[in-house]
Amino acid sequence: METKLTLRLNKGVIERAKIFAQNHNISLSKMIEAYLESLTTQNDDKVEISPLVKSLSGVIDLDEGFEYKKSYSQHLDEKYK
């Protein structure tokens, strides 16, 4: 069940939060909800994955056996030759 909540915050904080939310394609309400959820359900044994990270999951398909460390090392070698 969703309900309305009124908050009083510094205007600058609100503006920066709106920009952040817009840049990450998430509503300000959902961003605050996710933050409050993470605060109130912290469990030392379980690492909570943020909604942003969850939304990125599965974005890249790599071949099974892809050696990302080797690939990144080669990239750095080429970049800094």
Return the average pLDDT rounded to an integer. 86
Largest β-sheet summary: none
Task: Compute the number of strand runs.
Answer: 0
Instruction: Tell me the series of helices and strands, N- to C-terminal.
Output: HHHH
Uncertain ranges: none
Count of helix runs: 4
Terminal Cα separation, in Å?
Answer: 57 Å
The fraction of residues assigned to DSSP E strands is under 5%
Structural class: mainly alpha
Q: Judging from the principal axes of the Cα atoms, what is the shape?
A: elongated
Radius of gyration: 19 Å
What would you note in describing this structure?
The chain has a domain at 7-42. The protein has 81 residues and is an all-alpha fold. The model has no long low-confidence stretch (mean pLDDT 86). The radius of gyration is 19 Å and the shape is elongated. It is 54% helix and 0% strand. It contains four helices and no strands.
Q: Can you describe this structure in just a few lines?
A:
By secondary structure, the chain is an all-alpha fold. The chain has a domain at 7-42.
List keywords for this structure.
single chain, 81 residues, mainly alpha, 4 helices, 54% helix, elongated
Task: Give me the secondary-structure topology.
Elements: H1 11-23, H2 28-40, H3 51-56, H4 68-79
